[in-house]
Amino acid sequence: MSTLRKSLAIALLPISMSFASIASAADYVIDTKDAHAFIQFKIKHLGYSWLLGRFNDFEGTFSYDDKKPTESKVNVTIKTASVDSNHAERDKHLRSEDFLNVSKYPTATFNSKKITENGNGTAKLIGVLTLHGVTKEITIDVNKIGEGKDPWGSYRAGFEGTTKFALKDFNIKDVGPTSQEVEMYLSIEGVRKP
Amino acid sequence: MPKLKNTKDEYGWVSISLHWLVAISVIGLFILGLWMRSLSYYDPWYRLGPDIHKSIGIILFTILVFRVLVRLFNPPPAPLPSLSKFERVAAHGVHLLLYLLLFCIMISGYLISTADGRPIEVFNWFSIPAFVTNIEHQEDLAGEIHYYLALSVIILAVIHALAAFKHHIIDKDNTLKRILGLSKPSQ
């Protein structure tokens, strides 16, 4: 009898362990399926205004525990060909060798390395961005928007992030003295994995 | 002197004019097309080049439609009797292929600029609306087709011109002269 109980306990052990890991840091899938996540960019046009655009096709995951936010991890892969600035001729040019060169570099990736808390609900997310074949460390300022149950039986958590970098750092063509830097705005909602 | 319409031996002025108008326009559009892609964003021609390229392209399309109608209702003169069977078939095939390529180039060019639903403005004179916007990766696909077919039509036009020179210089026949309106009526 006792051997049966013992083997049952051993058999159930992995299940209880997996419950424990969910409780500490849950894994989330970024909700690109239902478009509750956005990757936008803006760059100065001639220095007179902002040109806005976005990447329509990307996917990613993150892990997050509000007790230990610095242990969070984020991984995102962007399909560079999905660049959309609301102008087909410009998008065609952005996809060409002059800019994103999407046939040679079809994806851009971001992988987090480190998170430091600012103490006021915001954090700095440090990670490596691979874009246009160049891998460089960037820092994203992150602000948590909220988390909780959704009305359809899942659990969601959402953040926004901003960052900027020089096009030159990623070997992307110079488009003029007032347009050296591109700013990114990220709005990310994740659905907790069941 | 040739007449207005084609006869069985000679090209008429309408066909001769259309031939050279289309030839000059196509070569001009090809050079403009390559050049405008190389311009920097701050070049004054960065916007003007594509505007002119598209406007002339649309007008050329209407001219080419007119040219096809002329060809159908007033066929070109018969091939010169000195031509071999191969030359007749090759010449006819190249002519038809040139028409086909030009139409495909114009349609693909139109599909690039109208891919997002924007119309094509023709010299601030009138605009052509977008009819097809739902092909996947439309502007990229149409762009590739437009580029490679444009290269093809230029290569084919060079072959077409070399053949005309061959007839003029080696065979010393009327082939080149009659598209210039310089052929003497055959006795």
UniProtKB/TrEMBL annotation, chain A:
Keywords: Signal. It comes from the Bacteria. Residues 27-191 form the Lipid/polyisoprenoid-binding YceI-like domain. Transmembrane segments: none annotated. Residues 1-25 form the signal peptide. This is YceI family protein. It comes from Zooshikella harenae. The lineage of its organism: Bacteria, Pseudomonadati, Pseudomonadota, Gammaproteobacteria, Oceanospirillales.
TrEMBL record, chain B:
InterPro entries: Cyt_b561_bac/Ni-Hgenase, Cytochrome_b561_oxidase, Di-haem_cyt_TM. It is a multi-pass membrane protein. Residues 11-181 form the Cytochrome b561 bacterial/Ni-hydrogenase domain. Gene3D superfamilies: Transmembrane di-heme cytochromes, Chain C (1.20.950.20). Coiled coil: none annotated. The chain crosses the membrane at residues 12-35, 55-73, 94-112, 145-165. Keywords: Cell membrane, Electron transport, Heme, Iron, Membrane, Metal-binding, Transmembrane, Transmembrane helix, Transport. The keyword Magnesium does not apply. Its cofactor is heme b. It comes from the Bacteria. It is found in: Cell membrane. Belongs to the cytochrome b561 family. This is Cytochrome b. It comes from Zooshikella harenae.
